[in-house]
UniProtKB/TrEMBL annotation:
Belongs to the pyrroline-5-carboxylate reductase family. Pfam families: F420_oxidored, P5CR_dimer. The lineage of its organism: Bacteria, Pseudomonadati, Pseudomonadota, Betaproteobacteria, Burkholderiales. PANTHER family: PYRROLINE-5-CARBOXYLATE REDUCTASE, PYRROLINE-5-CARBOXYLATE REDUCTASE 3. Its main location: cytoplasm. This is Pyrroline-5-carboxylate reductase. InterPro entries: 6-PGluconate_DH-like_C_sf, NAD(P)-bd_dom_sf, P5C_Rdtase_cat_N, P5CR-like_CS, P5CR_dimer, Pyrroline-COOH_reductase. It comes from Massilia eburnea. One of its GO terms (cellular component) is cytoplasm. SUPFAM superfamilies: 6-phosphogluconate dehydrogenase C-terminal domain-like, NAD(P)-binding Rossmann-fold domains.
Length: 278
């Protein structure tokens, strides 16, 4: 499978790490990005081909992954438009796979001259180690083979969740797209608390990491629902009870729910603002 990435930043690098040499040889992956240093790093690490601007190799790809910031997506589609028109004239219809937050498939389609073979996705950075999860939705012009190709690409870096309605992708963005940052934030707080309680930075890191990975894996593997697992840690009148009572008093759960909703609202807002501007 020949895949072209438009944008070679953080998320593209995470996807390429999972794909190159696994789903497809690195030489079948082409990356376009204005930053020579990022391109050189990707070329050396994964054997991908690179370019500063989109050209022939992009037009020849079966899948075009749009991995630029939402704010430059309109400009990028205008650079891709002639390449897609040439591909169509040659009887080919490459799949356009967007990973951008907010940007709606209908706007991408309009910017690309009514192009219909679009899959909108929302991956996350644990893709870098093959542990990503991606929400996906296909436009009506996506063939069964293209849908399967999109699924294969994202399954090469973790799990996939197909959605029946594009509006739900803002929720996916808020939960799992941005989600790793919430987890890192919690780990940072645990590490800081460990140090304030007299443990070394190294000890705090080891304890926080092992607790997160262990608890997450237990939640995945256990037959018990998560609230039951929480109750099993919480002895009556004990330490966990003291901590959870403090969290409830500080409104931690409500704050997390509000934060995730703020992320979803921002995704929707980005789509509306940038869609109207383009
Ligand atoms: N980071 C994450 O965890 C996730 C990100 N996403 C989405 O992925 C997309 C990319 O995010 P992320 O990787 O974090 O962003 P980055 O800024 O790391 O990467 C985007 C890259 O695109 C480059 N670029 C800008 N203009 C062009 C152009 N015309 N042609 C080719 N490349 C260009 C940028 O260069 P320069 O910096 O010079 O502008 C940059 O290197 C976003 O739309 C985001 O919503 C989705 C899921 C998770
Ligand atoms: O923060 C962002 O907008 C992107 C989308 C999801 C994760 N990072």
């Amino acid at each position: 499978m020949k895949i072209a990435f438009i944008g070679g930043g953080n998320m593209a690098a995470a996807l390429i790490a999972g794909l190159a040499g696994k789903l497809t040889p690195g030489g079948n992956i082409h990356v376009v990005d204005p930053n020579p240093a990022s391109l050189e790093k990707l070329r050396q690490e994964y054997g991908v081909t690179v370019a500063g601007v989109a050209g022939e190799a992009v037009g020849a790809a079966e899948v075009l992954v749009l991995a630029v910031k939402p704010q430059v997506m309109h400009e990028v589609t205008q650079q891709l438009l002639p390449l897609l028109q040439a591909a169509r004239a040659a009887g080919r219809s490459p799949l356009v796979l967007s990973i951008a937050a907010g940007i709606r498939a209908q706007d991408l389609s309009r910017w690309l001259g009514g192009y219909q073979a679009i899959v909108r996705t929302m991956p996350n950075t644990p893709a870098l180690i093959g542990k990503g999860v991606t929400g996906m939705v296909a436009s009506s012009g996506v063939s069964t083979a293209q849908r399967e190709a999109a699924d294969q690409i994202l399954r090469a870096v973790g799990e996939t969740v197909w959605l029946d309605d594009e509006s739900k992708i803002d929720a996916v963005t808020a939960v799992s797209g941005s989600g790793p940052a919430y987890v890192f934030y919690f780990i940072e707080a645990m590490q800081q608390a460990a140090q304030e309680l007299g443990l070394t930075a190294e000890q705090g890191k080891q304890l926080a990491m092992a607790t997160f990975t262990g608890a997450a894996q237990l939640a995945v593997e256990s037959a018990d629902p998560v609230p039951v697992l929480r109750e099993k840690v919480t002895s009556k009148g004990g330490t966990t009870y003291a901590a959870l009572t403090s969290m409830e008093a500080s409104g931690v759960k409500a704050a997390i729910i509000a934060a995730v909703k703020a992320a979803a609202a921002r995704g929707k807002e980005l789509g509306e603002q940038l869609g109207a501007a383009g």
